[in-house]
């Protein structure tokens, strides 16, 4: 099976290109963004040496579905998906804050709580909680990008005090975050899932706040299976979850966590295809729809380039 790991397109009006860990973003006339979801996969802050077939299509189509199903809540950047691996949308000036919302005490929040932390990003945490227990209501724990690029926890008050985001814009982002999360939880519940936590990014265009980037994918969200949640919580057992955690576990089992002296294990075609199968399973669980593989007779990059150029020419 084919996988797209690199792109180097030249579109008419192209003014910038950014190659991220898994997505390549092309700016057109400083007005549109062409976001290509490649088949690259990252874990422990490193890109694995082999692509995962259909991973980019899975993430792009999940994000497109949720952007469409939440467009009544707030405006978002998406205009079209001219290719299964591409979303084209409006260029917005992104805020330097990620809005993380959590409904359950798990992950990094649990690790901090276990060490005695009772306040996270300015939010007071109740005493006596256990791992994977629901909060009385979802909490927002924003992060901001430091100059070196690491995400840093920060409180709402500090964001406003430092002028990172105005009080007015933050209030809009906070309102959108809660409403988007509630919608995401409703959709997940219909699929027998719990949307545990996720992140949203926002930007501004013509004085209006927009939802940007992607939402509710397994790369940016954590899902638990609803069936058995209470029983596992009562027994203090690990929850069954839907995320790319299984890739991290495989790397750990092969003695790799991107620490000094560690060597990346070989990613065989067989293993890459098994990860592909898991991503397709994620897609079908999250969306409740069968996944249709977008096969390509020729090169994947050529297909994408043709579809994007046709869309841009039609505008």
Tell me what the structure shows.
This protein is of the alpha+beta class and 315 residues long. Helices cover 32% and strands 28% of the residues. The protein contains 8 helices and 17 strands. It has helices at 55-69, 107-114, 156-161, 167-190, 229-234, 245-253, 269-287, 300-314, and strands at 14-19, 23-28, 32-37, 42-43, 46-47, 78-83, 86-90, 93-104, 119-120, 123-124, 134-140, 143-145, 151-153, 193-205, 208-212, 221-225, 241-242. Strands 8, 11, 12, 13, 14, 15, 16 and 17 form an 8-stranded antiparallel β-sheet that branches. The radius of gyration is 20 Å and the shape is globular. The two termini are 33 Å apart. 34% of the residues are buried. The model has no long low-confidence stretch (mean pLDDT 94).
Summarize this structure as a short list of keywords or feature phrases:
single chain; 315 residues; alpha+beta; eight-stranded antiparallel sheet; 17 strands; globular
What are the SSEs and their pairings?
Elements: E1 14-19, E2 23-28, E3 32-37, E4 42-43, E5 46-47, H1 55-69, E6 78-83, E7 86-90, E8 93-104, H2 107-114, E9 119-120, E10 123-124, E11 134-140, E12 143-145, E13 151-153, H3 156-161, H4 167-190, E14 193-205, E15 208-212, E16 221-225, H5 229-234, E17 241-242, H6 245-253, H7 269-287, H8 300-314
Antiparallel strand pairs: 1-2, 2-3, 3-7, 4-5, 6-7, 8-11, 8-12, 8-14, 9-10, 12-13, 14-15, 14-16, 16-17
Helix pairs in contact: 1-7
């Amino acid at each position: 099976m084919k996988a797209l790991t690199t792109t180097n397109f030249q579109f008419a009006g192209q003014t910038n290109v950014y190659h991220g860990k898994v997505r390549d973003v092309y700016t057109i006339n400083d007005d549109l963004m062409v976001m290509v979801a490649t088949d690259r996969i990252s874990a422990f802050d490193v890109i694995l040496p082999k692509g995962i077939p259909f991973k980019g299509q899975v993430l792009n189509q999940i994000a497109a579905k949720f952007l469409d199903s939440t467009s009544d809540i707030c405006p978002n950047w998406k205009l079209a998906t001219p290719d299964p691996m591409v979303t084209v949308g409006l260029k917005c000036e992104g805020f330097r804050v990620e809005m993380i919302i959590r409904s359950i005490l798990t992950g990094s929040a649990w690790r901090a709580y276990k060490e005695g932390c009772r306040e996270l990003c300015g939010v007071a945490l109740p005493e006596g909680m256990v791992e994977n227990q629901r909060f009385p209501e979802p909490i927002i724990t924003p992060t901001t990008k430091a100059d070196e690029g690491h995400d840093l926890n920060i409180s709402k008050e500090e964001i406003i005090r430092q002028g990172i985001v105005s009080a007015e814009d933050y209030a809009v982002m906070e309102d959108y975050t809660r409403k988007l999360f509630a919608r995401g939880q409703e959709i997940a519940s219909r699929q027998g899932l719990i949307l545990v936590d996720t992140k949203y990014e926002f930007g501004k265009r013509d004085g209006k706040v927009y939802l940007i980037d992607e939402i509710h994918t397994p790369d940016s969200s954590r899902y638990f299976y609803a069936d058995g949640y209470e029983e596992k919580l009562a027994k203090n057992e690990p929850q069954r979850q839907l995320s790319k955690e299984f890739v991290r576990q495989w790397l750990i089992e092969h003695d790799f966590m991107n620490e000094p002296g560690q060597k990346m294990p070989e990613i065989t075609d067989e293993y890459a295809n098994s990860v592909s199968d898991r991503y397709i399973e994620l897609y079908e669980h999250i969306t409740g729809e069968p996944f249709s593989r977008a096969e390509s007779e020729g090169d994947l990059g050529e297909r994408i380039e043709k579809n994007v150029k046709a869309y841009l020419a039609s505008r």
